[in-house]
Specification:
This protein has 466 residues and is of the alpha/beta class. It is built from 13 helices and 21 strands. Strands 1, 2, 3, 4, 5, 6 and 16 form a 7-stranded mixed beta sheet that branches. A 5-stranded antiparallel beta sheet has the order 17-18-21-20-19, with helices on both faces. A 4-stranded parallel beta sheet has the order 10-9-8-14.
């Protein structure tokens, strides 16, 4: 039973903890593998943020000809070479993953890499099922950064028909003629955009009445309206059973008007993610869990067990790479300076949905402000109201701001439309550093006619007191 100074479980953001300051630590990194290739480097690199956005940009390019007509430019999408698209993307991703694994396995003299599914078999004791058999290791300190995996619903017949998740769908050999996307969250919305832009007929299934229902209602309703015009959108549906007949998957539904059947060559399950705490048997390691199965961690990322920290998707309510990276830096500091711990700052966590149109959000939605009894005012500025919006002929996008009516401090910002994540960034900055709306709007130049005028006008339109 080998003992280490530090064990890191997970090779995503947790892998980034190790820098030159840990050169004299005896460290173990444990990774079970991500996705169909058991890749090294975590969700974001292999099956999440990076490859999906490379597909999204490709989809945006493929969708450009269809948007040319309203500008007086008649274009035609001649062909989509799926395998070339896929192999270009993963030719880069897989090389990075392989290089990262090689560096940890061969280029880090103070690091031992263990590959296999690991389970806690006691406090600060971990057993890893390696290719050569189980190995048990212990350590003074643990960092649990083992992420999550796609959630799979309990639908009769699902385990027999063959389906895809976000882990596997990007490595398809051929594009199907039709695809059922089960789920109306950000994963479903992004993949529905990708595959429909590349020529696949998409049917999206949702149990609620809106797509992206976690967004501000105005944003969600607008996106739902646009999604219904682009895809076969089936909302307020309950999945009853699924079956396969030859090359087709048939999904039986119960909807507002009774029984329905939808069929396609491919079924994508995109209903959310679950933490890997159960695979780790975190409770056996003395780690307290939340009601949704995540490892409970305090503001310093310390768990219920002294000397064990948790970070990223396995513990955070924000399943976002930029949050995992932030928490990594907190854990890194607290490992090196245990007597001077720092805390994670989750006050203004932004997120984005890279579908079509794009969405970006930070802070309170209007519904959350109402539920919490927060005093607020709002403003909405349409892309169609700024000169660059005229250039793009964008008639559906808008920015929505919430602010304190007395102080002008921004409470929330929500944008739907082209380059929404980029346009949101100065609003995140304003919230983080306490810049009020009036000062932000009038205290600087805004390039004319640029897209940031959307933000400027939304700030100026806030009905603030005084």
């Amino acid at each position: 039973m080998r003992h280490f100074d530090l064990v890191i479980i997970g090779s995503g953001s947790g892998n980034s903890i190790l820098d030159d300051r840990f050169a004299d630590w005896d460290v173990a990194v444990v990774e079970k593998g991500i996705g169909p290739n058991d890749a090294y480097g975590g969700t974001c690199l292999n099956v999440g943020c990076i490859p999906t956005k490379m597909f999204v940009h490709t989809a945006d390019v493929a969708g450009a000809p269809a948007n040319g007509a309203k500008l007086g430019v008649d274009l035609e999408l001649r062909d989509v070479r799926w395998r070339d698209i896929r192999d270009r993307i993963f030719g880069r991703i897989d090389e990075i993953s392989t290089g990262g694994r090689r560096y940890r396995a061969e280029g880090s003299p103070n690091v031992t890499l263990y590959e296999g599914v690991a389970r806690f078999t006691g406090v600060k004791r971990l057993t890893v099922e390696t290719a050569t058999g189980p190995e048990t290791i212990t350590a003074d300190r643990f960092v649990v950064a083992a992420g999550g995996r796609p959630a799979i619903p309990d639908i009769p017949g699902l385990d027999q028909v063959g389906y895809y998740t976000s882990d596997t769908v990007m490595r398809l050999d051929e594009l199907p003629a039709r695809m059922i996307v089960m789920g109306t969250g950000f994963v479903g919305a992004e993949f529905a955009h990708v595959f429909s832009a590349l020529g696949v007929d998409v049917t999206m299934i949702g149990r609620s009445g809106r797509v992206l229902r976690g967004e501000d209602t105005d944003i969600s309703e607008r996106f739902t309206e646009l999604a219904a015009a682009r895809w076969d959108l089936r909302l307020n549906r309950k999945e009853i059973s699924v079956e396969r007949e030859g090359d087709l998957v048939r999904l039986h539904l119960e909807g507002p008007e009774g029984a329905e059947v939808v069929e396609a060559e491919a079924l994508l399950i995109a209903i959310g993610r679950v933490p890997n705490s159960d695979l780790l048997d975190a409770a056996a390691g003395g780690l307290e869990l939340t009601t949704d199965g995540k490892i409970k961690a305090d503001a310093t990322q310390l768990t219920s067990m002294d000397g064990v920290w948790a970070m990223g998707d396995i513990s955070s309510e924000y399943e976002l790479k930029h949050v995992a990276n932030h928490e990594m830096r907190v854990v890194q500091h607290n490992l090196l300076h245990p007597d001077e711990p720092i805390s994670s700052d989750h006050r203004f966590v932004p997120h984005a949905v890279f579908s079509a149109p794009q969405i970006a959000s930070v802070g309170l939605t209007e519904q959350e402000a109402q539920q919490r009894g927060v005093s607020y005012v709002t403003s909405i500025e349409d892309y169609a109201g700024i000169a660059y919006g005229w250039a793009m002929e964008d008639k559906t996008g808008f920015a929505k701001l919430l602010a304190d009516p007395d102080t002008g401090q921004l409470l929330g910002a929500h944008i739907i439309g082209p380059q929404a994540p980029t346009l949101l960034q100065p609003l995140i900055q304003a919230m983080q550093f306490g810049l009020d709306a009036r000062t932000m709007a009038r205290g600087q130049y805004w390039i004319h006619p640029g897209m940031p005028e959307l933000v400027e006008n939304a700030l100026l339109n806030l009905p603030l007191k005084g």
